[in-house]
Amino acid sequence: MVMMERQLSAQAAAPLLSVQGLSRYYGARIGCKDVSFDLYPGEVMGIVGESGSGKSTLLSCLAGHQRPDAGGLSYNGVDVLALSEAERRRLLRSDWAYVHQNPRDGLRMGVSAGGNVGERLMAVGARHYGQIRDTATDWLGRVEIAAERIDDRPSAFSGGMQQRLQIARNLVTAPKLVFMDEPTGGLDVSVQARLLDLLRGLVRDLGLSVVIVTHDLAVVRLLADRLMVMKSGHVVEAGLTDQVLDDPQHAYTQLLVSSVLQV
Amino acid sequence: MTDQAYNFAYLDEQTKRMLRRALLKALAVPGYQVPFASREMPMPYGWGTGGVQVTAACLTPVDRLKVIDQGADDTTNAVSIRRFFQRTSGVAVTEATAEATIIQTRHRIPEQPLSEGQILVYQVPIPEPLRFLEPRETETRKMHELEEYGLMHVKLYEDIARHGEVSTAYAYPVKVEGRYVMDPSPIPKFDNPKLNDSPAIQLFGAGRECRIYALPPFTKVVSLDFDDHPFQASKAEHNCDLCGCGTSYLDEVITDDQGSRMFVCSDTDFCATRQAEGHRGRLSPEAA
Ligand SMILES: Nc1ncnc2c1ncn2[C@@H]1O[C@H](COP(=O)(O)OP(=O)(O)OP(=O)(O)O)[C@@H](O)[C@H]1O
Ligand SMILES: [Mg+2]
Hints:
A: about 45% helix; binds magnesium ion; iron-sulfur (chain B); 4Fe-4S (chain B); S-adenosyl-L-methionine (chain B); lyase (chain B)
């Protein structure tokens, strides 16, 4: 019900991210092909599919880490693919954020937790040490890391803490759009559950728009308003999460849903 | 006496032309690291081959050369570079800062203010100020290009978080004309203010890394800091024990095995000049 309302109010606004016919090839092999969707402010889009189905390829094209071979991509009405590299990188460190599956890819392992969280602030011009530190302390609290760990390096953190630190580091500049590639992958089940709760709270409190890749249907059930199912680089089914999961239309989605239920 | 086996100042004219082109480009884009084809020099890299090549490219027969290492004219490094240029170019040499037209230096800027027409050549071991946090050269070049310098402040942040203050005492990073972040070579941060608005031409040569960069006269050079932790050009809280100077950069010298110490100006020419003028310090011989 809540989701329905959110959906309705979101639809009234213009899309935050608009994707048209996006394709990316690796030589002759398809990475992802002809993907189109709109993401509205405050909406969470889940992307599921088996290994090799093109989820990460699509996400990295959306986030500007790879250039698509065909298709269009606009953010807030701006043609992202036409931006200069300087403008694109500015977007990446202010309005957008990217949470990697492996926290080592998204953190500076040689820099303290506080420095990791503060980096994006300094990158956009913060020059007051005391304020940077206060903000970092606040954010560590929000991701349930004790304030006294602020000067520890991430290498001294558990996998779950590292992932939460990566999330804090990304959200500290209040981005509008967050890309996440398997943010709960590689963590054990109890840690996953806690991280999911935390993510759900942050997404709701901050009104974030999110594109999240996973092959865990429990993750999308909990987080995603809408869902896209990918197979062999194509989107084979898309719709409201509950509808897709409760009444899958495509044979592949049926298999995916039933295979999870069997486990 | 000039050694006739070599071209003037050792390098051939072709190489000097290449170096001068790099220098002109560096002067045109203050603080930007210009790649150049570094040559083998008859001395090891740690001895300032970058500085030596820059000096060789600038030297003319009417120049008067001064070479200092840590402020001193008489260390092995300084003496051998000075001899090298005496032998290969026959130019006049001096220890007096004011009389020199070219000063090659390692780790210091002379105390005596430089004047228009002088050239200060720095020996640089690591030209890239972003190296310590971002080892990928492709990425650091991109960061310079796009002015993405947030990482420099991460380094300063880490300093303060760990030590309560910015503990970087040498090679303290600066921003040049509001554009490029630059490593001023391992001079003490005490010297950083002298980089700013200097009437002299300042040239930086990194031999091993094949980079040249420069500050033309009267360039704005600002040391990076935080609003609530402003940059401070610190020095030892002492006066020179030989000349009594309270404002020069001091070296601490252990004088016996009981742990007695003295503080002396690191700039030997400056200190000797003051002593000759009659200035006295705590440990000066009583009878002059
Ligand atoms: N760098 C690359 N070079 C060549 N082919 C690639 C590259 N990256 C991905 N591919 C191919 O593109 C297709 C999609 O891969 P992608 O990594 O996007 O899948 P995925 O859905 O993220 O898989 P997983 O769930 O295992 O992470 C696969 O066939 C893969 O082999
Ligand atoms: Mg993937």
